[in-house]
Amino acid sequence: MLLFKIFIVEDDPWYGEILQYHLGLNPDYEVTLLKTGKECLAQLSKKPDLVTIDFSLPDLNGEELFRKIRATQPHLPVIVISAQDKITTAVSLLKLGVDDYLVKDDHTKELLWKSIIRIRENLSLKEEISELKAELKTKYDYSNTIVGNSAAIRQVFRLIDKAAASTINVSITGETGTGKEVVAKAVHYHSPRASQPFVAVNMAAIPKELVESELFGYEKGAFTGAQQRKTGKFEEANGGTLFLDEIGELELGIQSKLLRVLQEKELTRLGGNGKVKLDFRLVVATHKNLADEVRKGHFREDLYYRIVGMPIVLPPLRERREDILLLAQHFLKLYSKENKDTEYKLSADARQKLVQYPFPGNIRELKAAVELAAVMSEHHQIEAADITFMSDLTKDPLEGKEMTLREYTRLIIKNYLEKYQDNVVLVAEKLDIGRSTIYKMMQTGEL
Ligand SMILES: Nc1ncnc2c1ncn2[C@@H]1O[C@H](COP(=O)(O)OP(=O)(O)OP(=O)(O)O)[C@@H](O)[C@H]1O
Asked: Which GO terms label this protein's molecular function in UniProt (predicted)?
């Protein structure tokens, strides 16, 4: 651990040594005794963490020395210790920004001990706050999370900016793994609602009979088993953004209820009477073409017009190949960072293999392939042979046959289930998909 460096500036050697001895009892402190203001200024380059100064030094008085320290070290904590207990001096020094003012008496060393502890606590709080601010800034700054330079993705950036600056609803369409959720988050974290909740609900992952209570919440006793009141996702998102993923999976009955909530901007919890006022921005996503779903009678037209707001279309990765290498490098960097590892390099062959592949699983698949390649590589140099695509794992049955994305997905999942002895939780984690997707395919007999 780094020692906390304290300078004591005190011209009375006897008193200075008492303070130095007392503070030195703390093994975390490195205490240096200095006799004059000039000596202190000359030693500031040694970067002390805290300075205590005697108010009446032979060369500079406490205030002069404090001003000079602050001129070069605006954040360095300073405690003034003075023989005089004039309130006016104390107040004016504290107003100038001195961190504490102590009067020399029998208790000074104990007070100084406590004062330093308090100042250190404040310092660590400040550090924590600035770390949190930096973290929030990265969330705001979606250029760190959404990588790409293709014309398509640049247009998406433009739309995110526009959507974030307004309160318009947003509908995001794209194949699985194209980044619909990251775009939804970018809209939220870039908007004035950023400090409010972002609540994501995947409509495909909630059993039909639970959708209503999940979204609307319920009162105690609303149905058997409702032992206490539960707030629904609409309410949780109040003040922030509600992200309804796979909106195309919503049943017609629930669609009308959703429409009513959007029109009236209030809801009644199941089993309740009172209305709850709502204020959230709605962002929806789907891999389906909602306009087609309307034509087929699967999706209410009035709801469609309510939610469509600003449509953002995320093209599949195979239609924006210029983003593949940027994304691959981005994921490799993330991978090194997460594993506290050095950087990985892609050989020319490896690059070529990546840009030529059609990526049915889009960015999610690219991420998985690149991470696996990093593990397989030698000396942090990724060769073409280190890259295995999901469809390679299931190559034989695919030979010569054109398949839909769903069929591909089924084969990939099947292959993984075999590999991991039907451990659904592990497979869902490995493939970065919801467990419900696997369970559903099992229920429908596809797996
Ligand atoms: N442009 C991008 N830059 C960097 N990472 C991205 C980008 N787009 C997506 N990702 C990453 O790819 C993965 C899949 O993205 P996301 O979950 O947003 O896709 P999705 O379209 O919502 O998928 P699904 O339809 O299956 O829910 C995530 O790990 C995400 O962080």
From this structure: ATP binding; DNA binding
DSSP class of residue 49 equals S
CATH number of the domain to which 413 belongs? 1.10.8.60
Tell me which of 147, 325, 364 to substitute to probe ligand 1's pocket, judged by most ligand atoms within 8 Å of the beta carbon: 364
Give the Cα separation of 288 and 176 in Å (integer).
10
Residues 269 and 388 in one domain: no
Helix, strand, coil distribution of the chain in percent, nearest 5: 55, 15, 30
On the 0-12 / 13-18 / 19+ scale of CB atoms within 10 A, 233 is buried
306 in the same domain as 161: yes
pLDDT in tens, 304-346: 999 999 999 999 999 999 999 999 999 999 999 888 888 999 9
**Amino acid identity for residue 370 in this structure:** V
The ipTM (two decimal places) reads 0.97
* 191 and 334 together in one domain: no
Q: Residues 19, 98: one domain? A: yes
Residues with CB under 6 Å of ligand 1 are 146-148, 174, 176-182, 245, 287, 327, 330, 363-364, 367
Ligand 1 atom nearest to CA at 314: 21
Rounded to the nearest angstrom, the distance between the alpha carbon of 363 and the centre of ligand 1 is 6
**Cα 192 to middle of ligand 1, angstroms:** 23
Q: What's the chain's length in residues?
A: 447
Is the pTM above the cut of 0.80? no
Do 314 and 182 contact (CB within 8 A), yes or no? no
Mutate to test the pocket of ligand 1, among 138, 157, 180, 182 (most ligand atoms within 8 A of CB): 182
* Domain edge (last residue) among 315, 335, 356: 315
Q: Where are the beta strands (DSSP E) in 338-399?
A: 345-346, 381-382
C-alpha 435 chain-centroid distance: 23
Q: Are residues 73 and 216 in the same domain?
A: no
Residue-range definition of the domain harbouring residue 324 = 318-443
Report how many domains make up the chain.
3
